[in-house]
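Methods — Computational structure assignment.
A single polypeptide chain was analysed. Its primary sequence is given first, followed by the predicted tertiary structure written as structure tokens.
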Amino acid sequence: MTNIPNYLKNFNDEVLTLKSQFKEKWIKNEFDNVKRFIKEHATHEGNSIVYKWVGITKKTLPSYFNNYFLVKDCFEDGTIKEKRDFKPTWYKRFIIKNDESLMQIITAKADTYANEVFDFYLTRVSEKVKDVNDASEIEIFELKNVYLGGRSYPETVIKVKTSSDAEAEISTTVETHFSSRGTFFLKFPTRFHNMKKSGNPVKAPSWNNFVELAKECA
């Protein structure tokens, strides 16, 4: 009888211990990014900033921008340009979307974002592990390392060995990306180490190759 449910429960429990640490790091990083944007580009004015729009388009704005600011055409003194005013201007006014402090907005977003990242990560790992187990029952599932990587996203190293004598150490993490249209999405990169068949090293390791290897050995 396979122990996959227990393996995955232990894996999930270990990974979820990182969640509060992830949120703390993400909040600090997001707050620092927004404050840096304000400092570099604007004259602070209440809950908004005004700066000259030079060489920046919506596509080149920081990824966190739309979470916290609305943008309006304005004049140098910060006066919002009316729709029927055709006088040219190179100035934009960035307005914080609501009256809460910036930190409160970021902290509230952190819960949602952490849930999104960890749910995505745990789901993808579970799917991949089940694919291997369907090919050949997993006999060893050793969680060798669980940590937040250099970009503060969860990373793990797992040793897997099947009853058909296919084995590998697999490292997984989460990466953030943006499409050409600016749509945010998550990716699930994996790296393989020491992939073997009956103790013999195997080249070109990947999830698909490991699944096929497990089937071949069975």
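Note: The radius of gyration is 24 Å.
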